[in-house]
Design a protein that fits this description.
single chain, six-stranded parallel β-sheet, about 25% helix, binds zinc ion
């Protein structure tokens, strides 16, 4: 079968929207018709060469949701017609981590930038017959995709699929970082640096955890207004030492209990670290370009301040746990999803979506099929 897809062909060039050939699912795979896919900054890092992938062309896109159209003979627990959210790390179910339910740490995770399916082969070819990779083993910038059953979570059919797509990446990344990594407690103070897809969800995650002071920091003023709607109590439009000073002023010179670095860690980690209270947590949720290999924090300062610096991928909890949990929170009104979507685009218009992301116009742009 054929599918229209957005391919990454050249670093620094727009995505190429082309018709590709898609092979049917193998025994443990399923064919999914995409309904919606979010425009996450991670794909943009790939397009700009800041996050290297092993091959081109590759279908990007990893924040997708859709409907199952075909299943392989060995698939279990998934049926034709099921609504699914794609997960950007497969949960193989067999490794040291998956055996403990920690699918976000799956041993197969490092392979998601390689291109092939989980079984090592390819399902996609371009019009010239060249093999085409699938970013994160999902390749969701495509009308249809074939993925291993390890890369999906089945959801209830009444959840709108454009909202369901958001819980594939940005929402768990942010909400989970507050709930599962920092373990924000009622009454805590929080700083969120960078109020995009991840950061805005850290804001709402901190609100759900009962934080009483939530300081949003972003250099785009509109994002500070949005952050207030998601639960921020204060907004700071500053960077570097100015940001640190502003946060210390807002916290009686003590600093916040938890700081979240949700954009550009090379620039924002040190100011966030210094705006954190002694014994506080600094959580990194954002990608750093491959070309940056170190960040200067003095070991003595780390030692005497007794702070913890930690990473959180996928909100530091299994998507199989978080996705149903987040959708239940949405159902009871505790979690904002529709409010996260700024604009919807057709697949043909995907590059305009990324231009809008780059210009800071979108909280989340979503391609709808
Ligand atoms: Zn993402
Ligand atoms: Zn695994």
């Amino acid at each position: 079968m054929h599918s229209l897809a957005a391919l990454f062909r050249e670093v620094g060039s727009p995505l190429s929207v082309e018709r590709i050939k898609l092979d049917p699912p193998q025994p443990t795979e399923i064919l999914v018709r995409l309904a919606a896919v979010g425009l996450c900054r991670t794909d943009y890092h790939v397009m700009r060469g800041e996050r290297r992938v092993a091959m081109r062309p590759m279908v990007l896109g990893h924040e997708g949701a859709g409907i199952v159209e075909q299943i392989g003979a060995a698939v279990s627990g998934i049926e034709i017609g099921d609504h699914v959210v794609l997960t950007f790390i497969p949960g193989c179910g067999r490794c040291h981590w998956c055996a403990q339910g920690l699918h976000h740490l799956c041993a197969e995770g490092p392979r998601i930038t390689q291109g092939p399916q989980l079984d090592g082969s390819y399902r996609r070819r371009d019009s010239g017959g060249a093999e085409v990779g699938a970013f994160c083993m999902v390749g969701a910038f495509s009308e249809r995709t074939v993925v291993d059953q390890a890369s999906v979570v089945v959801i209830d059919r009444d959840i709108p699929l454009d909202l369901a797509a958001l819980v594939a990446c940005g929402v768990p990344a942010g909400v989970g970082a507050a709930r599962y990594r920092a373990r924000v407690k009622p009454g805590d103070s929080v700083l969120v640096v960078g109020c995009g897809g991840d950061g805005m969800n850290v804001v709402q995650g901190a609100r759900l955890c009962g934080a009483t002071k939530i300081i949003a920091a972003d250099i785009v003023p509109a994002k500070l207004d949005w952050a207030r709607e998601f639960g921020a109590t204060d907004g700071v439009s500053a960077r570097g030492e100015t940001l640190t000073r502003a946060v210390l002023e807002l916290t009686d010179g003590i600093g916040v209990d938890h700081a979240f670095v949700c954009i550009d860690p090379p620039e924002t980690l040190l100011p966030a670290f210094r705006a954190t209270a002694k014994a506080g947590n600094v959580v990194i949720t954002a990608l750093t370009p491959d070309t940056v290999t170190s960040i200067g924090i003095s070991p003595l300062e780390l030692f005497v301040s007794q702070k913890a610096i930690m990473g959180a991928v996928y909100g530091f909890a299994s998507p199989r746990l978080q996705i149903p949990e987040l959708l239940a929170l949405y159902r009871t009104g505790g979690l904002k999803l529709g409010e996260l979507i700024t604009r919807r685009y057709g697949l043909d218009d995907i590059n305009r979506g990324y231009a809008d992301l780059d210009a800071g116009k979108n909280l989340r742009g979503v391609v709808v099929f």
